[in-house]
Amino acid sequence: MSFIGNEEQIRYLQERFRLVYGFVFVGLAILATRMLYLQVINGDQMRQYSEENRIKRVKVPAPRGMFFDREGNLLVDNRPAFNVQITPQYLKESGKPKQVLEKLSSLIHLPVSEIEKRLQRARQPSFMPVIIKDNLTRDEVAELETWKIDMPGVQVEMAIARSNLSGDMGSNLYGYIGKVSTSELPNLNQNSSRKYLLDDYTGKSGLEREFEDFLRGIDGSELVEVDALGRSIEAARSKGRVLSQPQVEPSVPGKNLVLSIDQALQEAAVRGFGEKNGGLIAIDPRNGEVLAMVSRPSFNPSDFSRGIDPEIWNKLISDENHPLRDKTIQDHYSPGSTFKTITAIAALEEGVITKDTTFSCAGSINLGSRKVHCWKKGGHGPVNVVSALTHSCDVFFYRVAQKLKSVDDIAKWAFHLGLGKKTGIELGREVPGLIPTEAWKQQRFNVPWSPGETLYVAIGQSFVLTTTIQLANAYASLVNGGTLYKPHVVTSVQTEDGKTLREFLPQILDKTRLKPQTVDLVTQGLWGVVNIPGGTAYSQHIPGMEFAGKTGTVQVVTQKAEKIYQKCENLRYNQRHHGVFVGYAPVKNPSIVVAVVAEHACSGSQGAAPIAREVIKTYLQKYYPELYSDRAIEERKQLELKTGGRRANPPALETGD
Predict the structure, then answer these.
(1) Do both 430 and 558 map to the same domain?
(2) 550: Cβ–Cβ under 8 A, 6 or more apart, which residues?
């Protein structure tokens, strides 16, 4: 009985073993099938995955395009920089992320909490590196390289930083670059065929922003062999191991910009400003090319190149003089007496005055129950349009305003000369200024225009606002006979080897020709400003080197009549008048117009005109060396002394089409 029972138990167990054997067989079959699939059928793909795990693709940043001036002088360049990155995937797989971050924190002097915040803010796949700190010092790079074996996922990468070779000169024009922000990313990628990533750099202002598509290059890549924790295996290459794919995909540099700017004139403008604040524009009236464009105070774009220090940023944005604003196109001012030239043109063109029209200036006129004053307390006596411009007589232009039909007569010619609207220069954030009209006031304030208000418009006050570039362009249109060009600062876009891809030619915005007599009379008055004793800028006369122009002094705060003649220098700085000057040279066939606004400089003659004088002198000696060499100037100076001073009339002005 016992044997029979054992036999039945054995048969029962054998049936159980067959079931186990079946499961084992099926499991081995599945395993073999899977191995066959992975190693034979799908072997190439698995090998590729393995290679990709062994090889890391590292971005090789492309250099941005450079800036050159009209003579080929390099203005904005690139320089090497270094940053430290973390690849989150490798950091996590290292098994000691906390220790790695603490070590990194001690080497780059950045709190662990800040490093973690930057990793979280990246919001990108974990296999993509995140920049933790830019613009490392040499000591930081050396320390990181020394300890890199103990910091899996951390690597130092070379980058390209922007360098303005002239410091803060022209910075508002050239602009600066900065990291792409989360808010910018969608819009940038929507408008670009080459996608941006967080931590990429893009132009933020000036030409860097407006010509981003040309200046931005195409990043390359390099394939680097790494271990399981993402660390580069330099030794593998020395042993002769060869990567299965090409090691380097070269980057493509951005395109270069050739500017109409003359660096020598930029330097002259900065010398002229000294410690003063304001803006300067120099334009060639024959084609609209911008020869100089300076805004003071300024900033160094290189500070922004790989991430600006918070302390520097806070100082810039809290500065009451607003160094980040381009004072040539982003700030508008009352033009003061420089606007009298526009009023004179309007009156002559509308036929309300002629060269023989004379008014007597006793220092003020009555306007209803009030008196409006001339800047000269005792008055100028009898004046015509030429002497009124030379001596900047307010009363003459008050009388002109009373003879015009309405303020719209002044506005009409101001618009023809480019005031009250954007010039269209290839820079962003330009403001339009303001030229008031009867319709504008009715719409803006819902009250009609008062004829008395036209008197203040006639001398560049009231609602009138202009930018420095508008003033330069308006006078350029005057001296060339009435052709208004669109100012432009970029003349061409070129490849790295100098091949021109795109050329920017002059564009005409308005061609309302001025009467030859209008141009002649107005320019006689402007010549007298600088070259006749008693002219408002006669103190800036250069014996043997004639130029012409118009001064303006702009009150910043309203003053009572008894304080009008108070000495400006006795006022608090922010209550002092702005100085304005627009000048041109040579007097015959002008080729440069310079407009200057000097903030709180008290007067146009002493605050702004010396700055323009410095630029004009530099220009004449550079481009007309035979006429304005030191010897030629001395000869003309001696001739002036022998003939008893200035000529009675300026040389005839030649105007182009």
Answers:
(1) yes
(2) 337, 338, 340, 341, 389, 392, 475, 526, 529, 581, 582, 583, 604
